[in-house]
Design a protein that fits this description.
Elements: E1 4-7, E2 10-13, E3 18-24, E4 33-39, E5 46-51, E6 58-60, E7 68-73, E8 78-83, E9 92-99, E10 113-114, E11 118-123
């Protein structure tokens, strides 16, 4: 079993940057794809970004393309989400998740293990 743990959230102003980290236990981390999702109050959990096991393929929601970058360091069992040019509408709890199965990166149902999440708040 792989247990992800997020860190790096906080309160920033619009236009600023944050980098989220997701550290996952388990020797098989490097064989799994990973994803970042976010959930704002009163809304469903939305896909943000995904990355293949090797890091060779990445996927983004249209709302974050060009501003967010997902990456991974398999030697450190860690996935990152670099968030630039943050907007108030990016405010949410951000969670990372482990994807063991093939198929779409865009749906929460395709992921098997989830972290507790980290709060990101962007003020205007």
């Amino acid at each position: 079993q792989v247990q992800p743990v997020e860190s790096g959230g906080g309160l920033v102003r619009a236009g600023e940057s944050l980098r989220l980290s997701c550290a996952a236990s388990g020797r098989t981390f490097s064989t799994y794809a990973m994803g970042w999702f976010r959930q704002a109050p009163g809304r469903e959990r939305d896909f943000v970004a995904g990355i293949s096991w090797s890091g060779g393929s990445t996927f983004y929601a249209d709302s974050v393309k060009g501003r967010f970058t997902i990456s991974r360091d398999n030697a450190k069992n860690t996935v990152y989400l670099q968030m630039n040019s943050l907007k108030p509408e990016d405010t949410a709890v951000y969670s990372c998740a482990v994807k063991r199965r093939s198929g779409s990166y865009y749906y929460p149902s395709q992921y098997d293990y989830w972290g507790q999440g980290t709060q990101v708040t962007v003020s205007s």
